[in-house]
Amino acid sequence: MADIEVRHCLVCEDIRQEILGKISINGLFGIAPDVRINLKEINKSVADLIIGFYVSGKAGVHQSTFTLKLPSKEVLVELPLADFTIPENSDSKMLLGVELSGIVLPVEGDYEIQLSDGNGELYFTTPLKIGVADSALFESKSPS
């Protein structure tokens, strides 16, 4: 069993640590498992995509690997994350983030977000729905 538990997973355009520890979330697409991103076009670069994981777990240093799989279950992205430390206080929670700037999402469908520990044991998985938005949403309209 993994020593880490993902309490929440959110998908957005930006996460920032503010003064005094506040966290700002911009361009929220959703909180897993209810995340759907409607793109203007499939197979084009997405400017900013941040996946944030609010985690807790056993005190100590942890390793993690982030994986994003296509609907076909092929791996699109696999990234080792920086080691992180959960302090001795059992109530400690922390935010891990993955920034996928300029990623190309090649097909519509149900992608899969995964986190695994340093031994490759999967401890979190959730869907990420990718679709195409109605083109009328992207048309500019002049005031009448």
Number of DSSP helices?
Answer: 0
Uncertain spans: none
Described by the principal axes of the CA atoms, the overall outline is: globular
Biggest sheet: strands, sense, closure? 5 strands, mixed
Average of per-residue pLDDT values: 88
Residue share in helices? under 10%
Query: Total strand count, please?
Result: 13
Q: How far apart are the first and last residues' alpha carbons, in Å?
A: 61 Å
Q: What oligomeric state do the depicted chains represent? A: single chain
Secondary structure class reads: mainly beta
How large is the share of residues in beta strands? over 45%
Lateral arrangement of strands in the main beta sheet: 5-13-12-8-9
Order of helices and strands: EEEEEEEEEEEEE
Q: Radius of gyration over alpha carbons?
A: 17 Å
Task: Summarize the entry for a quick read.
The protein has 144 residues and is mainly β. It has no helices and 13 strands.
Could you characterize the architecture of this molecule?
The protein is an all-beta fold. 0% of the residues lie in helices and 58% in strands. The protein contains no helices and 13 strands. The chain has strands at residues 4-12, 14-17, 23-26, 30-31, 36-39, 45-46, 50-57, 60-69, 75-86, 93-99, 103-104, 109-117, 122-132. The strands form 4 sheets. It has a 5-stranded mixed beta sheet with strand order 5-13-12-8-9, with no helix packed on it. The chain has a 4-stranded antiparallel beta sheet with strand order 4-1-7-10, with no helix packed on it. It has a two-stranded antiparallel sheet with strand order 2-3. A hairpin with a 4-residue loop joins β12 (109-117) and β13 (122-132). The model has no long low-confidence stretch (mean pLDDT 88).
